[in-house]
Amino acid sequence: MLTFLLRPVGILYLSSGLLVIAQFGGDFSPRMNQVFLTPSHMVNRNVGLKVEGSSFTLDGSPFLIIAGTIHYFRVPREYWRDRLLKLKACGFNTLTTHIPWNLHEPRKGWFYFTANLDFMTFIAMASEVGLWVILCPGPYIGSDLDLGGLPSWLLRDPKMKLRTTYRGFTKAVNLYFDKIIPKIVQLQYGKGGPIIALQVENEYGSYHQDRRYMSYIKKALITRGIKVFLMTADNGDELKRGHLKRVLSTVHMKHIKKETYDTLLSIQGRSPVLMMVYTASSLDGWGTSPHSVDSHLLMRDVREMFNASFSLNFYMFHGGTNFGFMGGSASLDHYLPMITSYDYGALLTENGEHTPEYLAYQEFFSSSLGIPKPPHRDSIPMAIYKSVVTAHYMSLWDVMPYLEEPISSVKPICMEKLSVNQGNGQSSGYILYETVVTTSGLLTTKGHVQDRGQVRDGGWVFLDEEFLGVLDHSTNQLTIPRKMVYQNNPTLRILVENQGRLAYGQDINKERKGLIGDIYLNNFPLRKFKIYSLDMKTQFLQRDLPNIWKPALFKHRGPAFFLGILRMGNYPRDTFIKMEGWTKGVIFINGRNLGRYWNIGPQETLYLPGPWLHPGSNE
């Protein structure tokens, strides 16, 4: 999903494009009863989702797709059913969800399909509440994720060409599909499951580095047993480049104009229009102004789409949270790391509450489709807890003697190429570079500090434990004062945070993190580095350390770990954490990574799900 930072009026070009749309001649009457077109009612199944003229049919009956996107990996598993029931209650008949390769295979050959990554249970649950499913299995899914959902270990190959038929990429895709597609096959419509359609890749027209690639992905799906309806999805300008023969082209809302519908007509004739990504807002980046929803424009667009017999998918119905380090970055006129909340102007808030737009949609679907409105589900209870006092801390420098042995290297090594994680490199977190300097002078990066960010965030530079400054995309040099190296040879330390790889664009092949080349002192490259991988995973946080916590009697300056205890009664509830007076960092609760906070905004609080808490003390 491309990040839309502007939403101009009339972006769908509906009002002035109705004459063109009329050529599609929609056969569907919105008042037609779809109540019985649900997974539980359709026991004897034959042909599934098909195109007949300018309409979709499901097993021969006219079918208007009214879908909403929810990402299982952005919602606590304990709340999956609640969010799906709210999707159904609003009047939607279909769930759209994406499968992130990087979360399911974080290390090559190591697959995870349990707990919050159990997408099979999520899809089965959707069927139980009466929803069909459109599945987007990738391999690239975008969705504002780190590297668009591709695993970072792919970038260990210096010649890697992502999203192409380059052998190194297709070999990895084949192994991944061999593992994941059989799980999808058993959930298809023809086998009694709720999956009625699969999306082939995502917005490839805007990338288009290899003419053979999309055909390869299509074949990879079909030969592994995918038999449901296939579709592609592209923005209005890129429909032809992303199109596949005998696969329906669907539209993302960006760059739509009158000619978009002419293009659809020319490449696939008289066929239904599916607005595969209709979004009310856009994702916020750190240091930007928050975006708001124009509910009047929203409802006007939807009414016009229904009048033209469009099917639609609302991205996002419920956005959820970029827990941990899953969030990616955008690249517009500058690098823009995404905030932790994935609220996205969704119809449900980050913690699952109804918005006014949800109620407006529900009323509209009820009046247009004749769907009875069920009673509102009770809200999930929230709580406000007493402020947490971080009574103890330990600096990063205190912890370092107890970390795993650093990697010794003549030159700097980027995160992805570190010999850690069973040869898979480092995906996320922080990385620390150390080398001894023997002279003062000008320290320069020549663009080799890869992580950049809003408001001078990048590589924090220290001499021993004294902070020197920041190196990033806009600041590529610092001065090391002579007095700081006069009597001893201090250790130069550069601490780099991976703020999220680009989620989309032509430059994703370059998204290696940390130091991607030499650092120079007086134009001479520095050598003999010690490199510490600080990935902040559970194993890193739960390592056996001596009791080196210090009382937090004053405001510590520099990188450090802080410990606080959140106490509560027998029934923990959802809450939000406000990091008032703090600058930048990551919050962990009971070993779970809630995500990043940063005082430059716009996000001021982090969502803390009640199921992640337990009675008594929570660290």
Main features:
single chain, 619 residues, alpha/beta, eight-stranded parallel barrel, six-stranded antiparallel sheet, 12 helices, 32 strands, 17% helix, globular, disordered N terminus
Summarize the structure in short:
It contains twelve helices and 32 strands.
Give a description of the structure:
- It catalyses: Hydrolysis of terminal non-reducing beta-D-galactose residues in beta-D-galactosides.
- Belongs to the glycosyl hydrolase 35 family.
- Residues 55-365 form the Glycoside hydrolase 35 catalytic domain.
- Its EC number is 3.2.1.23.
- A hairpin with a 2-residue loop joins strand 1 and strand 2 (55-58).
- The chain is of the alpha/beta class.
- The strands form nine sheets. An eight-stranded parallel β-barrel has the order 4-5-6-7-8-9-10-11. It has a six-stranded antiparallel β-sheet with strand order 15-24-16-21-18-19, with no helix packed on it. The chain has a four-stranded antiparallel β-sheet with strand order 20-17-22-23, with no helix packed on it.
- Helices cover 17% and strands 24% of the residues.
- Which parts are unreliable, with pLDDT below 50 for 5 consecutive residues or more? 1-11, 15-22, 24-28, 452-457
Strand content: 15-25%
Helix content: 10-25%
Q: How would you sum up the major sheet?
A: 8 strands, parallel, barrel
| Shape label | globular
Q: How does the helix and strand content classify structurally?
A: alpha/beta
